[in-house]
Design brief:
The complex is a heterodimer of chains A (101) and B (465).
Chain A: E1 2-3, E2 8-16, H1 27-30, E3 34-42, E4 46-47, E5 51-55, E6 61-69, H2 82-96
Antiparallel strand pairs in A: 1-4, 2-3, 2-6, 3-5, 5-6
Chain B: H1 5-10, H2 12-20, H3 36-43, H4 47-56, E1 64-66, H5 68-77, E2 85-89, H6 100-113, E3 118-122, H7 126-138, E4 141-149, H8 157-168, E5 172-177, H9 182-193, E6 196-197, H10 203-207, H11 210-224, E7 230-234, H12 239-250, E8 257-263, H13 273-276, H14 286-294, E9 314-318, H15 320-334, H16 344-353, E10 361-364, H17 376-385, E11 389-393, E12 403-407, E13 416-417, H18 420-434, H19 443-453, H20 457-464
Parallel strand pairs in B: 2-10, 3-4, 3-6, 4-5, 7-8, 7-10, 8-9, 11-12
Antiparallel strand pairs in B: 1-2, 9-13
The chains are: A alpha+beta (101), B alpha/beta (465).
């Protein structure tokens, strides 16, 4: 997919390869690289998966692998957790028991 | 310039000196000793100055609520005559939605005064949003560096939300996977941009929290005619507790007991890639609270202004399930929907109130904003998706990283005391380590340890035997 100059995109870099990671970190973390994601405006047309140059919102120039065009926020309120509804019910019965009967 | 890991780390001291504008050497004394009060006085701001600085950006003067229904509930669980009045300082009312606005207000003001063009902060928490918000108000650029994802690219919902909020205020957000080498990326950015390091642990940052302590005392006196008996502070890096306690003392509230509360995350490693998304709390937990209390100078500045052990009368832990439960209780019984992490001290206070007489006053000194990701619903949903066993039961059976146990009954909510003696012992041990594993300290150094641990010199000597 081709991204156009000026598009808001996300680039990716590996900051440290596993072999270069700090000695004091746990074994599981040592097995994986330190990765970094930064968003910005694309400085020239580029394809997803290739190296690209961006200018961040504060004007910093960064290069990295183009991984997403128009990145958006996907976090939400999650799936329904039935237990939550029970909390208020229990508390109201405890606190106001008898009063509405 | 050499940008390799080792080269950048070796330039740490000079990068930091340029980026915080403080020559920490000025306050160093012999050996492990340093002049904390001189640092706070000379590099920080007075309470009056901070009030003025914060007032200009609408920070502080947050409301205080008496939680009458939760107080009544606590009294139902408590022995006859027990159940202190519970008050809550609604710090979510600050511009960026948490007490961190106080810290950011002074830090960003200071950066602007010194002529920096921008500010950088390394934080996955509310402080990032606070710095970004203040930078927007004062017209400075802002970069926030976050530890956000595990190696599968899965983001912690609470942190992902914080990234959105920082971007909403016009900040650049640099997101990283798990690991303390975040500090390397942070140093790189400071060196590249020449921006100010809006560290959480500078004198101005901590002094910014003092208004929280002074305000809450004044508000409680106004509402009840007397000073609070106990103030509970959620504890991670120690700045919240330190600043609040100092502020209370500055308005003459010297007898108030200061209780630290952290979420119990025992067994989960803070730098572990696999443990990362098994935590439902990204701050306010024991993984930060205990190391920073027993060895404060481990932050991103040479000498931390957050020194909680000086002011801490008691340190309790509370479980993740208990905090989630209290967060829902606050919404259901008090009509206040707030973020879970800010309710750590509330969960502790609900338990401690039951030990206190009914005419006593206990204050929970913070709340935080809530929203997608940063809310009991997505946090519990995320935990369940990650294989965490969520159910009602006895909170004492909760195993961090494996289960989240919502109390079957609110009477099961219990603040568990950590042994203050062990914590102080651990601090002393860290000082011995710092002293090249020698127990041979000068009188000045012994005095320093005594003040740091709230012990007498004789007691310190006893612990060195």
């Amino acid at each position: 997919m081709l991204a156009k100059k000026g598009d808001w995109v996300m680039v990716y870099n590996i900051v440290l390869e596993p072999k270069d990671r700090a000695p004091q970190i746990p074994e599981d973390t040592k097995k994986v690289p330190l990765e970094m994601w930064i968003k910005g405006f694309l400085l020239e047309d580029a394809k997803v998966g290739e190296m690209a140059n961006i200018e961040t919102i504060v004007g910093r120039k960064v290069s990295g692998k183009l991984i997403e065009i128009h990145p958006n926020h996907k976090h939400n309120y999650g799936n329904h957790v039935p237990e939550i509804l029970q909390i208020g019910k229990t508390l109201k019965e405890l606190l106001f028991c008898g009063e509405d009967k | 310039m050499d940008k390799s890991y080792s080269a950048v780390m070796s330039r740490k001291t000079e990068i930091m000196k340029k980026a915080v504008g403080i020559d920490y050497n000025t306050f160093e004394k012999e050996g492990i000793d340093f002049d904390y009060e001189a640092m706070m006085r000379e590099a920080g701001y007075s309470l009056e100055e901070i009030k003025k600085i914060q007032g200009e950006t609408g920070v502080g003067n947050t409301p205080i609520y008496e939680l009458k229904n939760l107080t009544n509930l606590a009294r139902k669980m408590a022995p006859e005559g027990k159940g202190a009045r519970i008050f809550l300082k609604d710090e979510a009312s600050n511009p960026s939605g948490s007490f961190k606005a106080r810290r950011a207000a002074t830090a960003v003001y200071h950066a602007k005064k010194l002529g920096y063009k921008g500010v950088i902060a390394a934080t996955s928490g509310n402080y990032g949003a606070a710095v970004a918000s203040q930078a927007a108000m004062l017209g400075l650029k802002c970069i926030i560096v976050q530890e956000c994802y595990d190696s599968n690219g899965k983001g912690q919902p609470e942190i992902v939300e914080k990234a959105r909020k920082c971007e909403a205020y016009g900040a650049e957000v640099v997101q990283l996977t798990v690991g303390p080498e975040l500090f390397y990326s942070f140093l790189n950015l400071l060196e590249e941009t020449g921006y100010f390091n809006a560290s959480l642990y500078t004198p101005f940052g901590i002094a910014g929290v003092e208004t929280l302590g002074s305000e809450l005392v004044e508000q409680i006196v106004e509402k009840t005619g007397k000073q609070p008996d106990v103030v509970v502070c959620t504890n991670a890096g120690g700045g919240n507790l330190t600043g609040t306690a100092r502020g209370m003392r500055k308005v003459g509230a010297e007898k108030v007991k200061v209780v630290a509360a952290s979420v119990n995350l025992k067994g989960l490693h803070m730098a572990s890639d696999t443990d990362f998304n098994k935590k439902s709390f990204t701050t306010g937990h024991t993984g930060f609270g205990i190391p920073f209390t027993t060895n404060p100078d481990r932050s991103d500045v040479p000498r931390s202004a957050a020194r909680p052990l000086r002011y801490m009368d008691r340190y309790v832990t509370i479980t993740q399930g208990e905090v989630f439960y209290m967060t829902e209780s606050l919404a259901q019984l008090e009509g206040l929907e707030r973020g879970p992490a800010g309710n750590t001290s509330l969960a502790a206070a609900f338990s401690i109130a039951q030990e206190m007489d009914q005419d006593k006053i206990i204050v929970v000194q913070e709340t935080e904003y809530t929203g997608a990701g940063k809310h009991i619903q997505p946090q519990l949903s995320f935990a369940r998706d990650n294989g965490i066993d969520l159910h009602f039961g006895n909170p004492r059976d909760e195993v961090p990283g494996k289960s989240i146990i919502l109390p079957e009954h609110p009477k099961m909510i219990k603040a568990i005391d950590l042994d203050m003696d062990k914590i102080r012992q651990s601090y002393v041990k860290n000082m011995v380590k710092k002293n090249s594993d020698s127990k041979d300290f000068t009188d000045e150094e012994l005095n320093y340890i005594a003040v740091e641990t709230n012990l007498t010199v004789e007691e310190v000597k006893g612990r060195l035997k």
